[in-house]
Design a protein that fits this description.
Layout: H1 12-25, E1 30-35, E2 39-46, E3 49-56, H2 75-105, H3 111-114, H4 127-141, H5 149-154
Antiparallel strand pairs: 1-2, 2-3
Length: 156
């Protein structure tokens, strides 16, 4: 299966700028970025919510060998392939954010629902970070988590 923007030549900085311009056009007013070789983070504020996307970047070591592992690449060639994969990830993120915002603008979805998993809670975790383990536990046990665990703990 072919990956979206697999052959893109758009630099990461341009994708990041496009994301920021798109977010601004749709009402975001604060932005923050952080990155290292393993992941990139984009945080913004819109509609009274803080939203955080964490983009897992491909591992550099995976590009030291050719796809079938028959030949070892030079450091320069491995870096070129790794950077291409990173550019592809940023293009995909730009597409996802643009699609979500357009769905909201078109009335197909509401902002809070569309960005719910990425909404930052007061403890610094996202709703997705908080909810996914609970959903997994509910499937394992067949039981729903308590509606208001903190409230219930205080009443005993």
């Amino acid at each position: 299966m072919r990956r979206y923007a697999a052959q893109t030549t758009v630099p990461i900085e341009r994708s990041r700028g496009e994301i920021e311009r798109t977010l601004s056009r749709y009402g975001a007013d604060s932005f923050a970025y952080a990155a290292n070789k393993r992941r990139a983070m984009l945080t913004f504020k819109a509609h009274g919510r803080v939203i955080r996307f964490v983009l897992e970047l491909p591992e550099f070591e995976c590009f030291r060998a050719t796809p079938r592992g028959r030949r070892r690449r030079s450091d320069e060639d491995a870096y070129r392939h790794w950077e291409q994969a990173c550019r592809q990830s940023w293009r995909a993120l730009a597409l996802v954010i643009k699609a979500k915002l357009e769905a909201v603008e078109s009335g197909i979805a509401v902002f809070e629902t569309e960005f719910l998993p990425y909404t930052v809670l007061p403890n610094g975790k996202t709703v997705g970070d908080w909810a996914l383990p609970q959903v997994a536990r509910a499937y394992e046990t067949g039981k729903m988590p308590a509606l208001l665990p903190a409230y219930l703990e205080g009443t005993e």
